[in-house]
Amino acid sequence: MTIVYLYTALCTVGGADRSIIQKANYLADEMHQDVFIITDSQKGRPSVFPISPRVRHIDIAIDFDRQYHHNLLVRGCYYFTLMRLYRKKLNYWLKTLKPDIVISTLGRELDFLTQLDDGSIKIGESHIAKPYTRNLHLMEQREFPYKQIARHWRKKQEEAVKKLDALVVLTQNDADNWKEVKKACIIPNFLPFLPENGSSCLEKRIISIGRYNEQKGYDRLIEAWGKVNRKHPDWHIRIYGEGQDRDRLQELIGKHHIENSFSLCPPTKNIQEKYLGSSIYVMSSRFEGLPMALLEAMACGVPCISFDCPYGPAEIITPEEDGILVRNGNTDELADAICRLIEDTDKRIRMGKQAQKNIQRYSREEVMKLWNELFNTLTTTRP
User: Which residue range or ranges hold the Glycosyl transferase family domain (predicted)?
Assistant: First the structure.
């Protein structure tokens, strides 16, 4: 088969970027499919994660950043002009490549993808839960006309998803979100690594991974850490990421007087080593799709503490067996849970070992088996 992935740009140290590249690499290297990744705004930037030489990356060079920093009217004119160009270029490439399957991550191309007559099977693959796709929830929190625009885009998204041949989501909870629109298949992302030996869980170090933005909730983690630090000043937490909220978070760290124990670190490609050198993983997100960092930490034998946010943590963590779930947004409970694991070394070690065992269900082979079954079903049942 010829398979095409559509994505904005492969240039961030993010879960979606890595997941798409790893699946494309597996399909090309292990299953010997012809695989292409088409981006719209790479703009010459290198991919953060390695792409197999068997996978061809094509960038069609649409500078969607041009629309930003203008008023709503000017931005709208820019957007529709760029979208016409995007449709024209993508239509050219799909008719040239003649793919059997095209996979969209529900990006901009969703607006017109099913209208292109290239003959391919069209699959939507959502990396974020339905309420938070394309950051529409942020527009819905603003005043008129942004609320109306968000409602319009949600309706357009649902109408476009109905026309897809299949929709793939990461969790059962998100599949329930789509049930009124389209029946969704549940295929999680797979683990990028499964180290043989896990963390000792003896280092006085806690880790978290993610972008410095509203979603990841690091303002809540800083508040909780202020309470932990007063009881355990010899423990240190490190966050690895980047994002627009970095300066604001650094100010909050100063406000809580935890500069000596709370560090904002740049992204690292050698994240496995950081997990293995840590004893607890903490996730403070307001929402997720399927949090890869939880899977990775557990694969490294690190017990996880997470807010029970929508969506994902409750489907990954078995409470009090391989990690701890606390009520979403309750920073007192989060601080108490961190202190409990700090103070109980035996429990930490036991949870870490169980986490490494339980997470095997997200192995590469198990997950790609589900994708292969979906591809075969769609190609054999389509007229």
Answer: 203-357
pLDDT band at 383 (very low <50, low <70, confident <90, very high): low
Residues 163 and 217 in one domain: no
DSSP assignments along 290-333, one per residue: S-HHHHHHHHTT--EEEE--SSSHHHH--BTTTEEEE-TT-HHH
Residue closest to 235 by CA, chosen among 284, 278, 272: 278
DSSP classification of residue 194: -
Among candidate residues 9, 4, 15, the one with its CA nearest the CA of residue 113: 4
Do residues 245 and 354 share a domain? yes
Neighbour tally for 366: CB within 10 Å: 13
Indicate if 287 and 160 belong to the same structural domain: no
Q: What is the CATH number of the domain that holds 152?
A: 3.40.50.2000
In a domain, 196, yes or no: no
Complete DSSP assignment for 236-272:
EEEEE---TTHHHHHHHHHHTT-TTTEEEE---S-HH
Q: Regarding beta strands 280-283 and 304-307, do their DSSP bridges make them parallel or antiparallel, or are they unpaired?
A: parallel
- What pTM value is reported for the model? 0.86
Domain range holding 325? 205-362
Domain count along the chain: 2
Query: What single DSSP character describes residue 362?
Result: G
pLDDT band at 66 (very low <50, low <70, confident <90, very high): confident
Amino acid at residue number 246: R
